[in-house]
Amino acid sequence: MLTLYLHIPFCKARCSYCDFYLVTSKVHIGAFFSALSLETRLRSPDLKGKTIGAIHFGGGTPSLVPVHYIAEWLDELAAMCNFAPDIEIALEANPEDLCCSAMDDLRAAGITRLSLGVQSFMPDKLRVLGRAHSAPESQEVTASALQLFESVSVDLICGVPGEDLSLWKADLQAALALRPQHISVYMLSLEPRTQLFRHVSKGLLTVPDDGVQASMYEEALCALEAQGYNHYEVSNFCMPDHHSRYNLASWKREPYLGFGPAAHSFLVSEEKEIRTANVSSLKRYIDSPGEAVAFREELSAEERFTEQVFLTLRINSGLDVEFLRKGNKLGHRLSQIIEQFKERGWIEQQESRLYLTGKGYLFADLIAGDFIFG
User: Fold this and answer.
1) C-alpha distances in angstroms, 152 versus 41, 187, 195?
2) Which residue in 160, 184, 188, 307 has its CB near the most CB atoms, within 10 A?
3) Which residues pair with 153 in a beta bridge?
4) What CATH code is assigned to 2-249?
5) Domain boundaries, the chain
6) Closest CA to 125 of 95, 161, 153
7) Is the dihedral of CA 187, 191, 196, 202 positive or negative?
8) Lowest mean per-residue pLDDT among 10-14, 97-101, 233-237
9) Mean pLDDT score, 134-155
10) What's 318-374 look like in SS3?
11) Whole-number Å distance between alpha carbons of 234 and 107
12) What are all long-range contacts of 273-278, with beta carbons under 8 Å and residues at least 24 apart?
């Protein structure tokens, strides 16, 4: 089974916290999809005979482009490979792009899952984040989407400048009142090239301290799990069988293909594992889609082990202790490290597998690093 990711790089504007690759002009949408079509045909050998279990349209803002482009690409793709009978086709969308007719068109084009970049249901947070939609739009669009799509995911951000725990609780309750099948909770990350980073660096805005942010995350765990959501990955919660198939496959290190500028791929053939990345330039991509790959590396055994530990700890399937012992050079120190994390309440062991606790998820990368490097 193979999953696909398509990066659509167009946005109306860059949000204050965003450092993803994007362009804020829609002039080249047609040229982009022509280049995408050529890239897809050139990569048809990687698709031939394969069954596709999930397709994820990310960006950028996929909901910004005319739906017929998406439908035409899906038709072209279907002629090159097999779609699983229950294929999940997910599309990221901003609420301001989604009047009812737009959602109808997306559903007709084959989209089965809508991932809404709500980020918040609170007006003050939306303003600080530079979002174009209003709080009422967040609620109205989410409610409408739930009537049309098999799965609806809502993104929320916590730790925004000016936010306290009571405001975060109100945000969570607003989301829970709508009952989307999936909720992603992201701690605000201040990326160096963003407007928000510059404002915080200059003292114009202040983010909640680490203790408050930790309390916000723990509040999300309690509130969502109490309402029946399964915490299946550090930032992701879902009702039964409504996890993101593309994302979960990526965390499990299953092969996937990425199309479009800045898209990544993970290829597995024979005993080789290869990661590639497309060029992060719309102009270069349009000019030479046949030369889209700008980076390629074959993973060593050590790199495979490191990835496996970091990614497996993020999800709730547990990390096998024997796998961990065989892959690192810590010897008896590994047992000591495991016991230390148990004493802190960061991990728990069930038979031969290690699981992060709610508090442990806050330190997932630190724990993985200690398991590998001591």
Assistant:
1) 31, 21, 30
2) 160
3) 115, 182
4) 3.20.20.70
5) 2-249, 301-374
6) 161
7) positive
8) 97-101
9) 95
10) CEEHHHHHHHCCCCCHHHHHHHHHHHHCCEEEECCEEEECCCHHHHHHHHHHHHHHC
11) 29
12) 273/298, 273/299, 273/304, 274/298, 274/299, 275/299, 278/7
- The distance from CA 263 to its chain's CA centroid, rounded to whole angstroms, is 13
How far is it between the farthest Cα atoms of the chain? Answer: 62
Span 42-70, pLDDT tens digits: 999 999 999 999 999 999 999 999 999 99
| Tens of pLDDT, residues 240-299 | 999 999 999 999 999 999 999 999 999 998 789 999 999 999 999 999 999 999 999 999
Residue-level pLDDT at 365: 93
Contact 369, 324 (CB under 8 A): no
Proportion of the chain in helix, strand, coil states, percent, rounded to 5: 45, 25, 30
- Rounded to two decimals, the pTM is 0.95
CA distances from 292 to 56, 283, 370 (A): 19, 11, 36
Give the single-character DSSP code of 249: H
- Interatomic CA distance for residues 315 and 323, integer angstroms: 16
Phi, psi of 231 (to 5 degrees): -85, 90
Coil, strand or helix: which one is 270? Answer: coil
CATH classification (class only), 301-374: mainly alpha
